[in-house]
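FAQ

Q: What does a record look like?
A: Structure on top, sequence underneath. For example:
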């Protein structure tokens, strides 16, 4: 057997099980999945053929919707995983005012903002040239979900994380 044929067969043998998993399971009419006793207990045996057909149509549609939702959820999850270290780059900067006065920061310093958020310094240490009262700050998103608190473009940023 030529090498190309062997490679094609090998690839096909790998893909067939995947296509079976990805395929939607066929809907089975409810009366076919229940015993006679279960049909009696649920009252389904008393339905007319038209009512049973309508019930199966509703359940088939709901089953299809559930499959679509599951696939959409899986697709969103995969997109998030594919973004990996890019998580956070879609975030926008947050502008707010600091409550109180600040003269610098170090790891563990908590900044309370006028929007109710509390941010804690993870990395960075800096003494400001002068004490600032209720200064405007900008929280700048970085890669991999990192955030940086900035008082002034000319000053270093504090690496922070949201604690509330």
């Amino acid at each position: 057997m030529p090498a190309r044929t062997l490679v094609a067969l090998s690839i096909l043998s790998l893909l067939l099980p995947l296509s079976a998993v990805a395929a939607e399971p066929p809907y089975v009419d409810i009366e076919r999945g229940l015993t006679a006793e279960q049909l009696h207990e649920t009252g389904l045996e008393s339905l007319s053929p038209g009512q049973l057909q309508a019930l199966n149509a509703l359940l088939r549609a709901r089953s299809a919707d559930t499959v679509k939702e599951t696939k959409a959820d899986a697709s969103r999850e995969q997109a998030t995983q594919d973004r990996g270290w890019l998580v956070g780059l879609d975030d926008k900067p947050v502008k707010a005012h600091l409550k109180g006065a600040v003269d610098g920061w170090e790891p563990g310093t908590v900044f309370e903002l006028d929007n109710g958020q509390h941010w804690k310094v993870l990395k960075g240490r800096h003494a400001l040239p002068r004490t600032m009262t209720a200064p405007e700050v900008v929280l700048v998103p970085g890669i991999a979900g990192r955030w940086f608190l900035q008082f002034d473009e000319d000053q270093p940023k504090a690496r922070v994380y949201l604690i509330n």
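Q: Is there anything notable about this one?
A: Residues 3-84 form one domain.
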